[in-house]
Write a structure and sequence with these properties.
It is built from 7 helices and 12 strands. With 263 residues, the chain is an alpha/beta fold. The chain has one domain: Rossmann fold (3-Layer(aba) Sandwich). Helix 1 packs parallel to helix 2 and helix 3 runs parallel beside helix 4.
């Protein structure tokens, strides 16, 4: 799951997809290679997005689900690989650490860890749903290595790109994002519009045009939902979130046709 801009709703769509796959009686696990979190005693906290996705999947958290964690320090971010501090990097917007500025040895360690975690998780599930970090192209356009998204996208069998319809640049960035991802051998198979405020027919037509231009499937549009609502912090997952997760599953499932797509 990658996006055209930060805060496009990857976590919303990913959480709903995971719950829907679980409802269809498939074994599903979440995977977010790079996560923004908070610093607690002894290292970074467990990422909140992964907590919700584990709850939606009905599985306990495993460290392999979130190997790289970043802690915001002003305009920079401290990078941790599991419980080991790696270094400090520039931060470009929300949840967008420039990991490509790390020395080669550290970059290779992160890449190897991401690949190893992915392989280990795949052995225990039917489907691994991976969420990227920040925007899919913002770092690569600045000439920086975007480990958070590009490696994840290259390793994935199928990539769904999410754009936020309420963002005025949603349609102007789609073609550029698709081009950058394909240059890096990312197999983009679908495009989805999230956070649609109204005029569904108008957004469906524009989304289909964008998908046709880029030879991908237009998955559909998701209406605005206040579950995450671009908040700085998510509420902790609990039994009270179960109904919310099911609502997201219904929204995503009506688009992705969960169950039939997975055979």
């Amino acid at each position: 799951m990658l996006s055209t801009t930060p805060a496009s709703g990857k976590t919303v769509v990913t959480t709903g997809l995971i719950r829907g796959v679980r409802n269809a009686h498939h074994r599903v696990l979440p995977f977010k290679p790079v996560s923004e979190t908070l610093l607690i005693e002894g290292g970074p906290a467990r990422p909140e997005a992964i907590e919700h996705q584990c709850f939606a999947a009905g599985v306990p958290f495993q460290p392999e689900m979130a190997p790289v964690r970043t802690v915001v320090v002003g305009r920079e971010a401290d990078v941790w690989l599991f419980d080991q501090y790696v270094g400090r990097v520039p931060r470009l917007g929300r949840d967008m650490p420039a990991l490509g500025t790390l020395p080669l040895l550290e970059r290779d360690a992160i890449s190897d860890a991401v690949d190893g975690c992915r392989r280990a998780l795949l052995e225990d599930c039917d489907l691994l749903v991976s969420e990227g970090s920040g925007a899919a192209t913002a770092l690569t356009e600045l000439g920086l290595v975007d480990i958070a998204n590009i490696q994840t996208g290259v390793l994935a069998d199928d990539v769904l790109v999410v754009a936020r319809a309420s963002n005025g640049t949603a349609f102007t960035t789609v073609d550029r994002v698709m081009g950058v991802l394909r240059e890096r051998f990312v197999n983009v198979t679908g495009f989805l519009l999230n956070d649609v405020p109204g005029c569904l027919d108008q957004h469906v037509e524009a989304g289909m045009d964008a998908a046709n231009r880029n030879s991908v499937e237009f998955v559909g549009v998701m209406p605005w939902t206040d579950f995450f609502d671009n908040r700085p912090r998510y509420r902790p997952p609990s039994q009270g979130c179960d109904e919310d997760h099911q609502h997201l599953a219904n929204l995503v499932g009506s688009l992705v046709r969960i169950g039939t797509t997975l055979g």
